[in-house]
């Protein structure tokens, strides 16, 4: 099991990352909560990781905090919630906000995440309530966002569109969400953040 990576951030195209560790490039998928706090391409980065082994592929997921990874690991234990849906949850709500949804029995907020219907949201609330008490404890971790750079190969709008589709949103819905983004949003991360907020409203 690969549990941690430290190396140079070689590329970032939400939701995918490429980390150069001693000349070996590791491809990872990461939630937007992690993307918001990434340094610029070329800088050193340290991520907690989780490896999902499937018959057709080994998929590595990266997380900026231990609590994000721990929540991811608990989410994929819930029936009907796979790695992609878990990634979508962490992209749409923070660890703190997910805890609030569970404590408040707020299934409606969870159903706004692609792939989560009413029954799955209710199952998440029931199964995660006791787990979260152990997982999170009394305090919540916060992490400030660092300056991020965009890839010159594509516009921020195109990268944001691809990232949201990869997270499970339908293309037509992504177009609508991005149209609501503020004109001042010039980075991919800003556009995705605003689109996810619009989806949750």
CATH topology label of the largest domain:
DNA polymerase, domain 1
The unreliable regions are: 138-153
The helix content is: 40-55%
Profile the largest sheet: 5 strands, antiparallel
Q: What's the CATH superfamily of the largest domain, by name?
A: 5' to 3' exonuclease, C-terminal subdomain
Class computed from helices, strands and strand pairing:
alpha+beta
- What fraction strand? 15-25%
Continuous helix count: 9
Text of the CATH class of the largest domain:
Mainly Alpha
Distance between the termini: 38 Å
Q: Gyration radius, to the nearest Å? A: 16 Å
What do these coordinates show?
By secondary structure, this protein is an alpha+beta fold. It has three domains: 4-63, Nucleic acid-binding proteins (OB fold (Dihydrolipoamide Acetyltransferase, E2P), Beta Barrel), CATH 2.40.50.140; 67-136, DNA polymerase, domain 1, CATH 1.10.150; 156-200, Ubiquitin-associated (UBA) domain (Helicase, Ruva Protein, domain 3). Helices cover 44% and strands 19% of the residues. The protein contains nine helices and five strands; from the N terminus they run βββαββαααααααα. The chain has helices spanning 32-35, 66-75, 83-92, 95-103, 107-110, 118-136, 156-166, 171-179, 188-200; strands spanning 4-13, 16-21, 24-29, 44-53, 58-63. A five-stranded antiparallel beta sheet has the order 3-2-1-4-5. It is globular. The protein starts with a strand and ends with a helix. Mean pLDDT is 82; it is low at 138-153.
